[in-house]
Amino acid sequence: MLLTAPNISYLLGLGVIATFVPNMLNNLSSMKLNPTVHNIIGMSTPISASIMAWIFLGEEQDALALIAMLVTVSGIFLSMRTPVKKPVAATEQA
Fold first, then answer.
1. Model pTM greater than 0.85?
2. Beta strand ranges found along 1-91 (DSSP E)
3. How many Å apart are CA 67 and CA 74, to the nearest integer?
4. HEC secondary structure over 7-36
């Protein structure tokens, strides 16, 4: 790999835009959101990526990918329907 100005700018762009910014936003959102909601959003990431690849890149989805999406969406739906239990303090358990 040649260390040219365009290559260095692409590497910096990947490092900052594609790695640092999403991780920082994920960390900030994990402090603000309910852990259940944060995990539900995380579970939907592969589906979102697959749909965007289909729309923007023309990537074909086979039957196995569609079944996996259906299973994932079902899991997300079940997670949303399950009531969240409030944590019990350690002093209350004893």
1. no
2. none
3. 10
4. HHHHHHHHHHHHHHHHHHHHHHHHHHCCHH
